Design the sequence.
């Protein structure tokens, strides 16, 4: 429940503090005194967007603080999820600076606006005049019925199953699109793959063939040069190898006469051995080279195929060509395997859909069971609030599976017992919507763990006995919930457990709003003024006293 509201520097509020009771709190005051401004300040605490234009003092900052006492499992879960410190007293503070920046704090820990809105949803239900528009929306109507069903675990299980079903459905659609795209390319990719497979190039084969062909086409020139080199090294009249050997022996013979010669002789010996080895290697290479016209033709044909494929695929090497072949292999196999994957996903989707349908049928049964007593209770309350001829009927029709089930829920309304029911949005007036919303919320509040209900002028368009009955309903609500209600109706004000009066005063040349808790005698006077004007008659005072005492 909301224990205290502290407002500083907001609109025409300089500074005020209000302590609320845990039952029915009534707020009254002249039009324009600041009652709705008070609710606007509270809305900041509940996560409404800040407007720097509402600052009372443009040089200072606006601070609104709500102090709550909480014993709510949802609030405890919120604090645990966001790693906040939970205490018995919960303090929410909102600060708005002159430049428009706002900050929010929960127990002095900064939170963002999304977190604040989530938290406030577990603490307060703020019903303002424009909120009756929610009643016209099918989503709100469904949530009302579900709140009365009050089976959150069953709904949660359905929603988890729906998430899995939606995920599988998305996967199936993506895979179907991929298959359709892959099938368009499959024939061409298969043709390319078959072409590369038939070519059967090995690693570096094109590069090796190119080198081999150069050797084969220049075989005669190569052999002539190698023969000449081998001859000069080993078989000439004075072979180079033999000459090096002789020089080495001669220098070795002088080694005892000059200390540097042994090293040079050793180097000549190494050169001799190296030239001997070179000569042997050249002979081996020479023996392996033959002019082979058939092999040249084969190599030319093979290279022509390789060059054609390189050009076709826009690459330069055999390795790149083999990488393309591997990629095509994956694409073709993937396309051929998609049908099997699709079949498995379709089986899973059908299984999930069947399970969802069974769960949705169970939820429909629960909702249908709740409709008749809900209609009876609402229609009884409508008579109580001065609408004896009004009838509400709930229509549930089966549709396609959705995140909330299969039901399309619509509230139908007949204001005059005509037997002609139509959607609320088409036939209910503003005053009728306000009273209907009160009746519905009074029933829903019994099923929802919402400690504080706030009504801003829910009595629009009613008076007399209807207003008194609205007061009775609010009083009943206040037995289990904290209720804060702004009203112009004396019949409702008379039901208050705590009656607050909002007024304007001139302070240091500025008009400001103040709030005070009325004593019993002050309440009687205030209600009498609501009945007959600023100077109440004796009859009005007596009537007001009776309202307060009863």
Sequence:
């Amino acid at each position: 429940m909301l224990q205290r509201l502290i407002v500083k520097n907001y609109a025409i509020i300089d500074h005020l503090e209000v302590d609320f009771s845990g039952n029915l709190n009534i707020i009254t005051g002249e039009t324009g005194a600041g009652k709705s401004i008070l609710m606007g300040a509270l809305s900041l605490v509940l996560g409404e967007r800040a407007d720097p234009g509402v600052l009372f003092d443009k040089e200072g900052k606006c601070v609104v603080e709500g102090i709550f006492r909480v014993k709510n499992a949802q609030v405890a879960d919120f604090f645990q999820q966001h790693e906040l410190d939970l205490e018995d007293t919960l303090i929410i503070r909102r600060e708005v600076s002159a430049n428009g920046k706002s900050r929010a704090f929960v127990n002095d820990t900064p939170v963002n606006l999304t977190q604040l809105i989530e938290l406030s949803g577990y603490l307060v239900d703020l019903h303002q005049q424009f909120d009756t528009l929610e009643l016209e929306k099918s989503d709100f109507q469904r949530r009302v019925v579900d709140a009365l069903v009050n089976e959150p675990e069953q709904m949660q299980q359905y929603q988890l199953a729906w998430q899995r079903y939606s995920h599988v459905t998305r996967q199936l659609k993506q895979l179907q699109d991929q298959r359709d795209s892959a099938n368009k390319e499959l024939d061409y990719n298969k043709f390319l793959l078959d072409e590369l497979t038939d070519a059967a190039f090995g690693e570096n084969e094109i590069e090796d063939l190119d080198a081999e062909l150069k050797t084969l086409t220049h075989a005669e020139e190569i052999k002539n040069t190698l023969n000449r080199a081998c001859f000069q090294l080993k078989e000439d009249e004075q072979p180079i190898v033999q000459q090096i050997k002789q020089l080495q022996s001669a220098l070795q013979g002088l080694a005892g006469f000059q200390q540097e010669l042994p090293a040079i002789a050793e180097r000549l010996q190494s050169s001799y051995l190296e030239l001997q080895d070179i000569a042997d290697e050249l002979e081996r290479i020479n023996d392996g080279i033959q002019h082979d016209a058939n092999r040249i033709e084969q190599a030319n044909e093979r290279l022509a195929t390789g060059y054609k494929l390189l050009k076709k695929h826009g690459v330069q090497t055999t390795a790149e060509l083999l990488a393309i072949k591997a990629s095509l292999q994956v694409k073709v196999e993937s396309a051929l395997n998609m049908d099997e994957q699709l079949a498995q996903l379709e089986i899973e989707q059908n299984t999930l859909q069947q399970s969802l349908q069974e769960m949705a049928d169970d939820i429909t049964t629960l909702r249908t069971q709740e409709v008749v007593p809900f209609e009876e209770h609402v229609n009884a309350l409508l008579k109580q609030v001065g609408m004896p001829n009004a009838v509400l009927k709930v229509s549930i029709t089966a549709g396609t599976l959705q995140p909330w089930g299969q039901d399309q829920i619509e509230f139908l309304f007949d204001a005059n017992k005509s037997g002609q029911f139509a959607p609320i949005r088409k036939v209910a007036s503003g005053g009728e919507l306000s009273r209907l919303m009160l009746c519905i919320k009074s029933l829903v509040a019994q099923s929802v763990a919402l400690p504080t209900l706030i009504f801003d002028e829910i009595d629009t368009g009613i008076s007399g006995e209807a207003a008194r009955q609205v007061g009775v309903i609010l009083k009943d609500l206040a037995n289990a919930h904290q209720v804060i209600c702004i009203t112009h109706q004396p019949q409702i004000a008379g039901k208050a457990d705590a009656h607050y009066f909002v007024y304007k005063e001139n302070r240091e040349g500025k008009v400001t709003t103040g709030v005070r808790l009325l004593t019993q005698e002050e309440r009687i006077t205030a209600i009498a003024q609501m009945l007959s004007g600023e100077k109440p008659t004796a009859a009005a005072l007596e009537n007001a006293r009776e309202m307060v005492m009863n």
The mean pLDDT is 84. The two ends are 26 Å apart (CA to CA).
